[in-house]
Amino acid sequence: YVLHDGPPYANGDIHIGHALNKTLKDFVVRSRFLLGYDVDYVPGWDCHGLPIEWKIEEQFRAKGRRKDEVSKEEFRTACREYAGKYIDLQRDQFLRLGITGDFANRYATMDFTSEAAIVAEFHKFKNSGQLYRGSKPVMWSPVERTALADAEVEYHDHVSPTIWVKFPVVGATDSHPDDLLSFRAATPSVVIWTTTPWTIPANRAISYGPEIAYGLYEVTALEEGLDYEPWAKPGDRFIIADKLAEDVFKAAKISGFTRVDAINPSGLECAHPLAALDSGYGFSVPLLAGDHVTDDAGTGFVHTAPGHGADDFAVWLAHGHREVPDTVDPDGAYYEHVPLFAGLKVLETEGKKTGKFGPANGAVMEKLIEAGNLLARGRMEHSYPHSWRSKAPIIFRNTPQWFIRMDETLEDDNTLRDRALNAIDATAFHPAAGKNRIRSMVEGRPDWLISRQRAWGTPLAMFVDKQTGQPLHDPEVDARIVKAVAEGGADVWFSAPDADFLGAHDPERFEKVTDILDVWFDSGSTHAFTLDPRTAAHGYAGDRPSHWPADLYLEGSDQHRGWFQSSLLEGCGTRGRAPFKAVLTHGFTLDENGEKMSKSRGNTTDPLTIIKESGADILRLWVALVDYSDDQRIGKQILQTTVDAYRKLRNTVRYLLGALNG
Predict the structure, then answer these.
(1) What is the rounded CA–CA span in Å between residue 168 and residue 171?
(2) What is the pLDDT of residues 49-63, one digit of tens each?
(3) 193: Cβ–Cβ under 8 A, 6 or more apart, which residues?
(4) Confidence band (pLDDT; 50, 70, 90) for 184?
């Protein structure tokens, strides 16, 4: 019987969540052993990724050295040593907790043989046509200088500036009123609303909803008694969704208006609102029909910057456009070629203001005022994406990345999504509600973004043909790469000459990819080097037969979007099914009042303190007594109750044993 261990991250002492998880696993391992099974439980650790990379950056900064002044080899060595220290520490703490497992043959994603196996798994995706490089907007952390996947993003309340912007109409088809562009009346403007003023320089279109009713409105009066002059004036004409016109005019301090006519936005063309200030914005802005546009809020029109939003990108491509402008660099600053705003930061990435919005929003608003095309502005608190590691806001940014296709038909006539959904249906979930949760996530998830622009991880160890842009498919090259990584670790990919891997191929023709793999790909591949044969050739002390798929994966319920899902997709992509037969999930541990634990609030319970004061059995008994399938509570009072229960159990068993004669 094999319970495959979901790897904890090697960067600190164990916490109460670790104690709950590992003890539950130990109950499974021991009970199966007592039922007569040969139980193979191999503890493992997740070692690559940003938290360790950050810690090492801090250490180098403390010595007066910036990351770009440190060689990749030295940097990765420091990361490896850091992770190794915490593997040893956590191993001893798990053993003190009474965990039974093959700790002598533990696995770690940074072991050379593990890195080689992960590269080999990656090559399977590369060679099966499931991998592609796409230039599209992805969630990008300027603070961390890398792309993020959905599972690495959390949402927090955030206050953003809101602006209503005028896009003057400069062209129209015959389907519009005769006086729409007549000089006898004011030329109208399409009005958009956005919470990201910094994306206005990247605007290339305006999206409208084909089913939404729009009107041409004329301003007749402004609010009086204001301590500033509104940006609208009587006679201005605006095109707005009928349902939202009143809200827009209220924001713009317009007290009187008339609806001149109904408008069909199809065929309209506008000028960019900054065109009057710089010829770099002298292109026309078309109106594009988009199903994502609603009249629930805003103006009924969506400012469309294809490099900074998934819907924007999709509607831009759907209308036959291919060129996506690059506006913001990896540091979250405008590129030098961006007119009026070159070098200005969208997000601060250094110093005390790290993670705060930079001067870009304000600068764009000032230029819109100067151009006469800001209608109104305000502030809005809303849910905004943040990196779950740095806790800093992220942005959508167009950048070339590597993806695994979810909807490409494979050799069995199924897509990866089909395979994954079939595998979910074939898996036993405990509790059963987990099946619907992960199923809905897989049904709606986008292509799997697997590349990261960092240093500490397993590389996308492949070459790309500079002429075709396609990955090199050569089994001999792949074999040389995997062999070199198995012998010298992934570091060899960055240090060895390209010719060592390419053999007869001309190094001048090929580009070496130096991105690293998403750490979820690392941990999602662990089944490949723990469940498949683990022999002396793989670096293990004793040979073991293959036991794939595992009988059980057991982790917290948050792993439906994390390890369960990446393991599912990795197994389905390389072997056609999930690497597990059953999945068991447990809830989170809260304090005695049912509140989330946090060091800043001082309501955490440290498992090492409990073990020191009361012994590991008290912690294990608490795990045995709670309903693990739901969120559970722990604290001093609950632990005292557990101590009392333990004392009764122990004394009863002691009496019974004492009553046995011989």
Answers:
(1) 9
(2) 888 988 898 888 888
(3) 162, 163, 164, 165, 248, 297, 298, 299, 301, 303
(4) very low
